Amino acid sequence: MTEHDAEAANLRESDILTGPLPRVIFVLALPVLLENFLGFLVGFYDVFLAGKLSEHATKAIGVASYVGWLASLIFGLVGAGTTALVSRHYGARKFADANRFLNRSLALSTVMGVGIAILFWLIAPLFARLVNMRGEAYEIAVRYLRYDAFGHFFLGFTYIAASALRGSGNMRLPMYVLGFMNLVNIIVSAILVFGIGTNVGLGSEWIASRGVDGIVMGTVAAKICGASIMLICLLRGSGHLKIDFSEFRLRDELVARILRIGRLALLDGSIVWVGQFLFLMIISQLESSDTESTVFAAHVVGINVEAISFLPAFAWGIAASTAIGQSLGAGLPDRALQAGKTALKQCSIFMLFLTFVFFFGAETIYQFMSDQPRVHEVGVPAFRLLALFQLPLAMSIIFSNSLRGAGDTRHPMIFSFIGVILVRLPLAYLGGVVLDGGLIGAWVGMCADVLVKAILVSVYYLRGKWVETSV
């Protein structure tokens, strides 16, 4: 890094601690918002392609998205600690220590990636059976999960590297990487799903159509490309962060500190994931011999579209997390407290807009995402209910990420347990299965979970005791 580059980097780092907070949060959040949007398009596009094939394909993609989410939660064991520790040391201007945490984290992600790939390959049939998949849907899901297991290794490396970069305040590089991944996914998946040749009058197929298998092949190709680019960038160095293989160690105090913070984040994520998968099993019980995969497909479409609302919430949550971690590292607790509040105020504008779009555009959204009229009939009323809970969702995500940025992973875990296990699952089973309320009855439990968690985390955050968290 040249002297000019170093000076520019120091100015950017200084702005996080001394610049006007609304501007700092906004500037930090925008690249993450675009990054999240590009990442969202990968899953969105996969569901869109599946919706053009069959309800079974949509159901298989839905299960795979939950399994992929589990993989990201496991990597969160490292990612949460990485972001908190890198941001703290950046705030304290201890850049060499921050770089050591990057390298320890990447070493951990490499080992974990191999283990996750092998494990998910082996238990793919179990995931499919747990949601009552049979026949063609079962075969599609197992193949998809096993292909995707290979991609988790590469996505884990990208995820951990991005966590460190965000902790340092570099939001742009992860955005560029996700942008390229999305482009690869769109091109490769479309080619492999539909093939090239006979459909354009070439006489013979250059590339044979692989149907739903082509979707996952494109996704895995995108993950490999993303990890490769991230590796090249960090070998060259980004700011004060650079890969140093001599620092790839798995047993020392730095690794212990990463895992100490991350273990509760992993428990938090595991609670949420187990609860979500049990919730998915409840959704699968809403099917009958007449509906086949209709209710499940309607659920998958709705959840994947609603994921749009997670984009601004996570973007402003990550921005607040970076500002909070660096502010606490620099001994500025009041600025840290205000960062989360500022992030919520800015994000609320997006969430109110999405509430309007989701509620009044529900029918159009379902018609676009699926060619199955029965899916529209089941999904539209439930989606309109879900639209009303977008602002509480933002409160929950932003304040939870803010606490994790401070290194407090304990309280988000407790709130997740209460919301998912004690609220969502009982109410979903009661409304969907016992009272025969269908998808909308089950989603009442999901909406109640969002509301309860938003209240709990907001009250705790605003009390401000978390600024005393040590890492």
SSE run: HHHHHHHHHHHHHHH
Q: What's the shape?
A: globular
Q: Mind describing the biggest β-sheet?
A: none
Strand content: under 5%
Q: Helix count, per DSSP? A: 15
As an assembly, this protein is single chain
Sequence stretches where pLDDT stays below 50 over 5 or more residues:
1-11, 198-204
In angstroms, what separates the terminal alpha carbons?
A: 29 Å
The helicity comes to over 70%
Structure classification? mainly alpha
Mean pLDDT: 82
Number of strands: 0
Q: Rg, please? A: 22 Å
What does this protein look like?
This protein is mainly alpha-helical and 471 residues long. Helix content is 82%, strand content 0%. The protein has 15 helices and no strands. α2 packs antiparallel against α7 (212-236) and α13 (390-405) packs across α15 (438-463). The longest helix is centred in the N-terminal third of the chain and has 37 residues, at 55-91. It is globular. The chain starts with a helix and ends in an 8-residue tail after the last helix. 55% of the residues are buried.
